[in-house]
Amino acid sequence: MRFITITSPVNAIIKEALKIKQKYARYRHEAFFIEGPHLIEMAVASPHVEIKRVFFTEEFSNKKEGQRLLRLIISSIKCQPPRDIFIRVSEQVLNKLSDTETPQGIAAVMSCKIARLDGISFKEVPFLVVCDGIQDPGNLGTIIRVSDAAGADAVIILPNTCDAFMPKAIRATAGSLFNIPIIYSGLETLFDFIESKNISLYAADVHAQMSIYEFDFKLPVAIAFGNEAHGVSEVLLKRAKGLKIPILGKAESLNVAMAASVCLYEVVRQRIY
């Protein structure tokens, strides 16, 4: 494996990686920063992800598991990689790059091809998850993770939603970001698409009359989850039918990620049984 060694945190390559991590809104899926063996291995396994740079410590590369992962990364690169794709860094440099208290010895800059609505490969019965104005990256990442677990066909990201490729959102997906199509769309484009596919649009709404347990989720469906404070937008709510989760105790509402988990697994329950 060809690599270069960097020990200075002010090296130009390190500055560039920090800029990508800190200015993620500018780069989005075209360049994003991830760290840790688990996330990197899942990213490498995705056909939609391209490796731009890998940073690792000498200690990591001396471990059996580290050597296995580095070989896996090398084998995933189809052409002869440039020498500066693999960069051995000092512990000081990796600490500067890392967001976690205990860095795991490896980090990477990658890019991801974003899917299109017309490129969704639907299963037998279409099942979409729509994120409308969600602001907390932890919530967004969790919704992507549970959408993957529940077998949704894609996650649609509407305007005013935080970026799915923010470091915190990526960590919250636990790698599911690389398993399920993430699609950025405008509202009208989404409306036209689901209408053309005969998919019913529903929205989680605490004020809705119908419970999720009254609806037949065996039909083609898109379920929207909205902003933590205000719910889904009025424009979307006018085009969707509301669904609520019954609350029997004294809690006023559920966190949006928790609500998504309950709703999506009601879809799973109905479609399995």
TrEMBL record:
Coiled-coil parts of chain: none
GO BP: methylation; RNA processing
Protein name: RNA methyltransferase
Keywords on record: Methyltransferase, Transferase
SMART domains for this protein: SpoU_sub_bind (SM00967)
Record family assignment: Belongs to the class IV-like SAM-binding methyltransferase superfamily. RNA methyltransferase TrmH family.
GO molecular function: RNA binding; RNA methyltransferase activity
Domain (RNA 2-O ribose methyltransferase substrate binding): residue spans on this chain: 33-116
Listed GO CC annotations: cytoplasm
Pfam families registered for this protein in UniProt: MRM3-like_sub_bind, SpoU_methylase
